[in-house]
Design goal:
Layout lengths: L5 E4 L2 E5 L2 H16 L20 E8 L2 E10 L4 E9 L8 H15 L4 E7 L3 H9 L3 E8 L2 E9 L2 H11 L6 H6 L28 E4 L2 E6 L1 H15 L20 E8 L2 E10 L4 E9 L8 H15 L4 E7 L3 H9 L3 E8 L2 E9 L2 H11 L6 H6 L10
Parallel strand pairs: 5-6, 13-14
Antiparallel strand pairs: 1-2, 2-3, 3-4, 4-5, 6-8, 7-8, 9-10, 10-11, 11-12, 12-13, 14-16, 15-16
Helix pairs in contact: 3-8
Keywords: Acyltransferase, Transferase
Pfam families: Acetyltransf_1
Protein name: GCN5-related N-acetyltransferase duplicated domains
Length: about 400
């Protein structure tokens, strides 16, 4: 590994260090950094680890003192694995990870790698969000000795990145990605955005909630939402769902439903539909914005209004499903406090399952289940764990 000093601002910098110096830093500081997590203590290993291949290490410094590190190593012929990043607690929450990330990714690109992978505890949003913002995609979950891990992958090859969208069902296959996937797909070249018919906002009560930028949010009956959805569904989605080719054999259960329309200039710009999932949980079924109204921060502004309304209905949890590569939705959801709880394959594709808890204890419980925090206090009591007083 080579490279010079990376200034990170506010007196912080990253410097290349040797693998031995990195291991020494781990031995001295890792208990201070990771001591609050919950993992399984194996006996000493019986085998020596395989050689790591090419390695990358940076020490994070502040005022000349080592306050953290980043370590990565080669994994296979085209992949580098971001194995370990640690920052002392008193220096966390200052955006250091977000500032370091583009520099190390540039180093991996320069070294010739195609893929960058990493694993993180599934509820560690402070790390997952910067990774998704940098272009990583959710790739899976695994239960290991440290808890529940989420696997992330960044493709430095734009064609493979597009192929990941196709795999998740978020986009139709096209171009070079389709060819690499062995699909002979004709190119249509159609511009769907230019042919979307305007739909006037139906008659609604009141002025709605101001979302800024001329957008308003209006609560409407489910039937009004359903009519708008039927007219604009094809314009709102480029994803690929399974065609059952026949009507469903049963009607959907009758449950409470909650629907909103987003308006701009007197026309429908999008919608949100939620319903009851179970006795404690609401399900955010469907949120969409027409193409001309995307990338304006609307989802981020919409979320607190919808969550507040669902909380006022008495729900303790809110559930949602999203394509695993749809970072434009996953990022605001995680920033709003949702936690990644699973991946599932359904008729829409490979979907990430997110849960938001209004209950603080349940939120802490999710962190404990993932191994991000050690069970203690009320969480331990709710789990029936009778801990010693010094642990509780």
């Amino acid at each position: 590994m080579d490279g010079g000093v990376i200034p990170l601002g506010d007196g912080y910098e990253a410097r290349p260090i040797s693998y031995d110096l990195y291991r020494d830093a781990c031995a001295r500081l890792e208990n201070r950094i990771f001591g609050g997590t919950w993992g399984y203590a194996f006996d000493p290993p019986a085998k020596t680890p395989p050689p790591p291949g090419e390695t990358f290490q940076w020490g994070l410094l502040h005022g000349g003192d080592l306050i953290g590190w980043h370590h990565a190593h080669q994994q296979g012929e085209r992949t580098v694995y971001m194995a370990d990043t640690g920052i002392l607690p008193e220096h966390q929450g200052r955006g250091l990870y977000s500032r370091l990330l583009p520099h190390v990714l540039a180093a991996y690109r320069s070294a010739g790698y195609t893929l960058v992978t990493s694993h993180h505890r599934a509820t560690n949003n402070r790390v997952i969000v910067p990774k998704l913002r940098a272009g990583f995609f959710l790739q899976g979950l695994n239960l290991y000795e440290g808890g529940l891990n989420v696997a992330l992958t960044l493709s430095l090859d734009p064609t493979y990145r597009e192929a990941m969208h196709v795999r998740s069902g978020f986009r139709q296959p096209s171009g070079e990605a389709a060819r690499r996937l062995g699909l002979n797909v004709p190119e249509t070249g159609a511009d769907a955005a230019a042919t979307i018919p305007p739909v006037p906002l139906p008659e609604v009560e009141g002025e709605g909630v101001d979302l800024g930028g001329g957008y308003t949010l209006h609560r409407v009956p489910y039937e009004v939402y359903g009519d708008v959805y039927a007219r604009l569904e094809d314009a709102a989605y480029a994803s690929v769902s399974f065609d059952w080719a026949e009507p469903a054999p049963f009607s959907s259960p009758e449950v409470p439903r909650y629907a909103w329309l987003i308006a701009h200039g007197g026309e429908v710009a999008g919608w949100q539909y939620s319903r009851q999932w179970d006795a404690r949980t609401a399900y955010m079924v469907n949120t969409a914005f027409l193409p001309a109204h995307r990338s304006k921060g609307l989802y981020t502004r919409l979320l607190p209004v919808v969550l507040s309304a669902l909380g006022a209905e008495g729900y303790r949890l809110v559930r949602s499903h999203h394509h695993a590569t749809n970072n434009a939705v996953l990022i605001p959801k995680l920033r709003a406090g949702f936690r990644l709880q699973g991946l599932q394959v359904d008729g829409h594709g490979v979907m990430a399952v997110l849960i938001h808890a209004f209950d603080d204890v349940y939120r802490d419980y999710m962190d404990t289940r993932s191994g991000l925090t050690h069970p203690k206090g009320e969480v331990a009591r709710r789990l029936g764990l009778h801990l010693r007083e010094d642990e509780a």
